[in-house]
Amino acid sequence: MTLKQATLEQALLAPCMEAVIAVTERYQFLEDHQGARVFTAYREIDHVIKLGFSEDLQGQTFDLENRGFQILEAREGTRREHRLLMLTLKEIGYAPHYNNEYFQASKGLLRHLRNLGWPLGELAQLLKSQRTH
């Protein structure tokens, strides 16, 4: 192995180990918190979406429905995943609407969420049929 190859291998070692640790933490969290979900809820009256995390989504569903939201899709996920999504959206210029989990629905935001692997359910069809930015 040449010096250049050894240096390159050493440089890649830390990021690879960080990725392995992150994946391991995710699976450990999901084993311990089997009801943990990341989700998207939508309120048609003002075209607001909530990008949320809950360790007990069934308990939160009632509160969301009372405020006019419909949960479109949910999947198992972690608080860290939700926090990273919020940071990413902030970095690319999306400001929250009411607080840090609520956003004005738009096709641009939807495109980013889809690219980031966030559960969206029927949101694409709803945005096509609604008049949004």
List keywords for this structure.
133 residues; alpha+beta; 4-stranded antiparallel β-sheet; 4 strands
What report would you give on this structure?
- The chain has 133 residues and is of the alpha+beta class.
- Helices cover 52% and strands 18% of the residues.
- The longest helix is centred in the N-terminal third of the chain and has 30 residues.
Write the layout of secondary structure elements.
Elements: H1 3-32, E1 37-43, E2 48-54, H2 57-66, E3 70-76, H3 79-91, E4 102-104, H4 107-115, H5 123-129
Antiparallel strand pairs: 1-2, 1-3, 2-4
| Low-confidence segments | none
The count of strands amounts to 4
Radius of gyration: 18 Å
Q: Cα distance, first to last residue?
A: 55 Å
Mean residue pLDDT: 82
Helix content bin: 40-55%
Mind summarizing the main beta sheet? Answer: 4 strands, antiparallel
> How would you sum up the global shape?
elongated
SS strand fraction: 15-25%
Number of helices: 5
**SSE succession:** HEEHEHEHH
Structural class: alpha+beta
